[in-house]
Automatic annotation (TrEMBL):
It holds the Pfam family MFS_1. It is a multi-pass membrane protein. It is found in: Cell membrane. This is Major facilitator superfamily (MFS) profile domain-containing protein. It comes from uncultured Thermomicrobiales bacterium. GO terms for molecular function: transmembrane transporter activity.
């Protein structure tokens, strides 16, 4: 009696002795890992991002009123005193791109915490610096920390509030508040306790940034497919990449139109060049020519900062209504006019 295996029914007799199919290849041990679950990335909550901007820009501008006293205490020339600011922005410059890339790999929470630790450490080292070189190194470390925090907070904000102009308006308002606090407290502390007190306060603010990043439950967003961090915000419903200079709206890898990005990049460069001159030249000029105290310098800078803060909300509305292409020439024209008028006032 012949028995028939049920698995052989309907099979070609020539295939009866074929070897079994090869098992699928084992998955690679080295898999790209994203923080979170299911391809999600950990972002900072909305309120935490705003608080991070306030504390960070508090640390950024708090040093400006103290620059003349730093130069006098360490016997620095005006040029070397300017390097105290240059070292800080150099640290930010070299860290901005790596910080943005790290957000999608380890999460905004980790990046912001690392930035808070760097700000606190650099501030303490600056407070105890006895000569120029250690101070410049400490300022560079502060700049690295600020770049990490700002990148983590800004990328979180752009994904939580992706509407045109809304995220940048919130950023400008929070940063303006932080700058005002920094300028006011920087002048007061320098006048009352000396310039080293400024950096001790920055150390406390850095510790607050570290604690805030670690103590809050992170928000989560779907990781964009094939997109580098920071290229453009995502549509809240479709997950598609959006923003000026982006030539594709599909979830596939997007390509930046660098011609479209050139004007905003140049405009941003001009704005920061003007800002860097402003935060160095005004304090040194006021101290050297008018014999102004640190508190007076801080008050003057706070008034100018309030003008910037007051223009942030109308500027955001102008961008949403008329577009960035019209806003940039108008804003640069106002800056140029004010710069030309200031020396004769």
């Amino acid at each position: 009696m012949t028995t028939v295996n049920r698995e052989d029914i309907g099979r070609d007799p020539s295939d009866a002795h074929d070897p079994p199919p090869a098992p699928p290849p084992a998955p690679s041990r080295f898999r790209p890992r994203l923080p979170g679950r299911g391809g999600e990335i950990a972002l900072l909550p909305y309120r935490v991002t705003l608080g991070a901007f306030v504390l960070t820009f508090w640390c950024v501008d708090i040093v400006s009123p103290a620059l003349p006293d730093i130069g006098t205490s360490l016997r620095l020339s005006d040029t070397t005193t300017g390097l105290v600011v240059s070292a800080f922005f150099t640290g930010r410059l070299v860290t901005n791109l790596p910080a943005a890339l790290l957000v999608d790999r380890v999460g905004a929470r980790v990046v912001a915490a690392a930035g808070g630790f760097a700000v606190a450490s650099g501030s303490v080292l600056a407070a105890i610096a006895a000569s120029t070189f250690p101070l410049l190194l400490a300022r560079g470390l502060q700049g690295i920390g600020v770049a990490l925090v700002v990148s983590a907070a800004l990328l979180s904000l752009l994904r939580v509030r992706p509407g045109e102009g809304a995220a940048l308006t919130a950023f400008n308002v929070a940063a303006g508040i932080g700058s005002a606090l920094g300028l006011a407290t920087g002048g007061f502390l320098t006048n009352q306790f000396g310039w080293r007190a400024v950096f001790w306060l920055c150390g406390l603010l850095g510790a607050a940034l570290l604690a805030g990043a670690l103590s809050n439950r992170p928000a989560r967003a779907r990781a964009p497919v094939g997109r580098t961090a920071g290229t453009s915000p995502m549509d809240r419903d479709t997950g598609e990449a959006m923003g000026p200079g982006v030539t594709s709206r599909s979830p596939l890898p997007v390509h930046l139109d660098w011609r479209a990005m050139a004007i905003p990049l140049v405009a941003n460069l001009l704005v920061y060049a003007n800002y860097a001159i402003f935060v160095v030249a005004v304090p040194l000029r006021a101290a050297g020519h008018f014999d102004s105290s640190a508190q007076t310098i801080g008050t003057v800078l706070v008034i100018l900062n309030f003008a910037h803060l007051g223009g942030a909300i109308p500027a955001g509305r102008f961008v949403r209504r008329y577009g960035a292409a019209r806003t940039i020439p108008i804003s640069l024209g106002l800056v140029s006019l004010a710069t030309l008028v200031a020396p004769v006032m």
